[in-house]
Amino acid sequence: MALLAAAVPSSARAERPARLASINLCGDQLLLLLAERRQIVSLSYLAADPAVSALADRVGDIPLNSGRAEELVALQPDLVLSGTYQQRMTNGMLRRLGLAVLELPPADSLAQSLAQIRNVASAIGAVEKGEALVQSLERRIAAARPSPEGRAGGHPGGHPGAGPGALLLQPNLYASGPDSLAGDLLEEAGYRNLAAGHAVRHGAFLTLEDILLARPEVLVLETAIGEGTSLARHRLDHAALRSSAYRRIALEGRLLTCPGPGLAVAAELLAEARK
User: Distance between CA atoms of 195 and 59, rounded to whole angstroms?
Assistant: First the structure.
């Protein structure tokens, strides 16, 4: 959290910026959630893509950008929300041209997601709105957690980590590890993330054999709106993974990407499927 706070430009903390822009998907969604619409001068083109943005329906007529520095300079925003890694060169150029940039590192846990909401809310002068969003998410995710009896499986000697063994898979059999936002949310909803047994921390590609040997009770399969046919997606439909031994849960990947209400929706869907 200290690192996140340090990333906020001092000028952004001192006064409420009147003109805000984002070249980052999560920045887009946080502005849509926390900023006044009149403050937002531009969002990235990803903001309006329903396949990846959980808030695409809120974009409306807000101008979109393709993440180029020259586009942002022409808009003269008081603060630009950007990513930490892919936009590194652009961030440096924007700063050299006199624009304030708030970099948003990827959130690898629910705690980091909530800290990022508070950080952005502070930077744009929307502290109360940010805190209300955080508290709403905390309440909804807490309600999605299993009871202590449920975590213990209802048996004497059960332990808090007990729950259905699950793998959260993206196309090409990419598994989200416990040190990822999706993996953390899976465990918050009462599942045991079996990817940890393969020494997977953030995420890794598994083989079909890895999955079968892990003996998951549940396969959570990330989907995307408008997703077409591909070899990567076809691997999730392998006959061995369609066995009646597994419960298959479809979950939109866009709910698991960024801090926001999508996380609570995902937790609620996972909790309902656990029953």
Answer: 36
Q: What is the pLDDT of residues 80-138, one digit of tens each?
A: 999 998 889 999 999 999 999 999 999 999 999 999 999 999 999 999 999 999 999 99
Q: Which CATH number fits domain 161-274: 1.10.540.10, 1.10.357.10, 3.40.50.150, 3.40.50.1980?
A: 3.40.50.1980
103-122 burial string, b = 16+ CB within 10 Å, else e? Answer: bbebbbbbebbbbbbbbbbb
DSSP string computed for 21-37: EE-SHHHHHHHHHHS-G
Q: Encode pLDDT of 193-245 as tens digits.
A: 999 887 778 999 999 999 999 999 999 999 987 776 678 788 888 888 888 78
- Residue boundaries of the structural domains of the chain: 2-139, 161-274
Predicted structure pTM score: 0.86
Give domain 2-139's CATH superfamily.
Answer: Nitrogenase molybdenum iron protein domain (3.40.50.1980)
Chain centre to alpha carbon of residue 249: 18
